[in-house]
Specification:
mainly alpha, 70% helix, single chain
Length: 142
Amino acid sequence: MSDGDRDRSSDLHRRSLSRRGVIVGLALYVAWMAVLLGWLFWGRAATFRSYGDRAAIADWRAFREEMSRIGAQGPVRRRAPQSHEPPALVLMRDYFGVSLVATLVFGTLLFAMLLGAIRGAFSRDYVPYDDPTSPHGGNNAR
């Protein structure tokens, strides 16, 4: 095998590894997003189960009235909550789209950061910087 064939073979091997890496990265991204979105939808359903019935809303209103009554007592003045429904219910019902977009955006950013850190940590292509002004001779002596 000549040097040209060896270089071409090495280049093809390197390209196939990067293609494989892209496929693995995309599969991990899809799995990561499925987990995050699954948690978000599960949390939404759990919120509706916990706070969506009349008894939970009545408990919330009783809590608001209690906070209004005791808000002026003690060394710290407390304000009563303004919402007529539990905040978690309002968030998951009225602002679910915002939560969904935030999960997609921040989940993608976190995945990209972690993937970059992991790829950098396991990279074999690192070549130390050769600083000619270094007091150690300016070469990559090991």
